[in-house]
Amino acid sequence: MSAHIIDGKAFAASVRSDVAKDVQSLKQKHGITPGLAVVIVGEDPASQVYVRNKVKQTSEVGMNGFHFEYPADTQEEEVLQKVHELNNDPAVNGILVQLPLPDHMNETAIIEAISPEKDVDGFHVVNSGLLATGGKGLVPCTPLGCYLMLKDHLGDLSGKKAIVVGRSNIVGKPMAQLLLDASCTVTIAHSRTKDLPAEVAQADIVVAAVGRPEMIKGDWIKQDATVIDVGINRIPAPERGQGKHRLVGDVEYATASENAGAITPVPGGVGPMTIACLLKNTVTATYRQNDIKK
Ligand SMILES: Nc1nc(=O)c2c([nH]1)NC[C@@H]1CN(c3ccc(C(=O)N[C@@H](CCC(=O)O)C(=O)O)cc3)C=[N+]21
């Protein structure tokens, strides 16, 4: 049996079209245009596609985009100053500081400087605390996108066995919180997990967020499980010509598709949903900052 392919690209387009309607209504009824500010320090090649897509889609949904680029040797103080300025700017409803930051910067200090109400990445400790305690904060975009795809495909998630492979603050931990909130039985696996294949083999839902190309093998996947592949790894593809690359996920896609009931592709799965959820979070933040009920 071959798995159903969860089309993240199409789903993301429908999320963006809902966002565009909300933006229209904010403009017409309230005279407010949501604004998203993005701060980028240095040049991480892996982030380039992300930045390009984000810029394009921000304007497509009718929001204002503000972009600030700094060279890699910028002082931390200067970035903090910009964050404070954006916190106080009423035209800015969402702030995203692109990660990773250069090594000489304290990433945590910069994230915690963002006003939690404008933290559309959901990385601020106030937002992670709210997520962990069932409060109403902003939820990190990648896990939110994964969750929306799971809900769309499976409906009720309660009682399902889910495994999240990866324990980062950005994906693994918030993903596990969302699944727990949806009443899944959640395992968080990581580099020290003993017998990862056996753990994965138990799961009805597998979320792979390890950042290693095709590390999760297809024959570990339980029959009819739903597989969400968060990894976006660029690997050499000499078969496409000298110096060429291609994108693969953290899951061995071809073989996993034989066992899984459904699977997200790379590209065209989680990536586009991450950006759509960033725009969605910016609209959510705008509603809340202006005390408008949707
Ligand atoms: N503060 C912060 N928040 C982030 O959310 C964040 C970040 N920093 N730094 C960089 C990573 C990377 N990231 C991606 C999102 C979407 C795609 C995406 O849309 N990918 C296309 C790839 C298309 C292609 O390359 O052909 C896809 O998967 O289909 C990629 C990468 C968000 N990040």
Automatic annotation (TrEMBL):
Location of the Tetrahydrofolate dehydrogenase/cyclohydrolase NAD(P)-binding domain: 140-289
Substrates-to-products reaction catalysed: (6R)-5,10-methenyltetrahydrofolate + H2O = (6R)-10-formyltetrahydrofolate + H(+); (6R)-5,10-methylene-5,6,7,8-tetrahydrofolate + NADP(+) = (6R)-5,10-methenyltetrahydrofolate + NADPH
UniProt-listed Pfam families: THF_DHG_CYH, THF_DHG_CYH_C
Keywords annotated in UniProt: Amino-acid biosynthesis, Histidine biosynthesis, Hydrolase, Methionine biosynthesis, Multifunctional enzyme, NADP, One-carbon metabolism, Oxidoreductase, Purine biosynthesis
E.C. designation(s): 1.5.1.5, 3.5.4.9
Limits of the Tetrahydrofolate dehydrogenase/cyclohydrolase catalytic domain: 6-121
GO cellular component terms attached to this protein's record: cytosol
UniProt-listed GO biological process terms: L-histidine biosynthetic process; methionine biosynthetic process; purine nucleotide biosynthetic process; tetrahydrofolate interconversion
Alphabetized GO MF terms: methenyltetrahydrofolate cyclohydrolase activity; methylenetetrahydrofolate dehydrogenase (NADP+) activity
Pathway in which the depicted protein is active: One-carbon metabolism; tetrahydrofolate interconversion
Binding site for NADP(+): 166-168, 232
Source organism superkingdom: Bacteria
Complex formation: Homodimer.
Family: Belongs to the tetrahydrofolate dehydrogenase/cyclohydrolase family.
Annotated HAMAP family: THF_DHG_CYH
Annotated function: Catalyzes the oxidation of 5,10-methylenetetrahydrofolate to 5,10-methenyltetrahydrofolate and then the hydrolysis of 5,10-methenyltetrahydrofolate to 10-formyltetrahydrofolate.
Name under which the protein is recorded: Bifunctional protein FolD
Taxonomic source organism: Temperatibacter marinus
Gene that this polypeptide is encoded by: folD
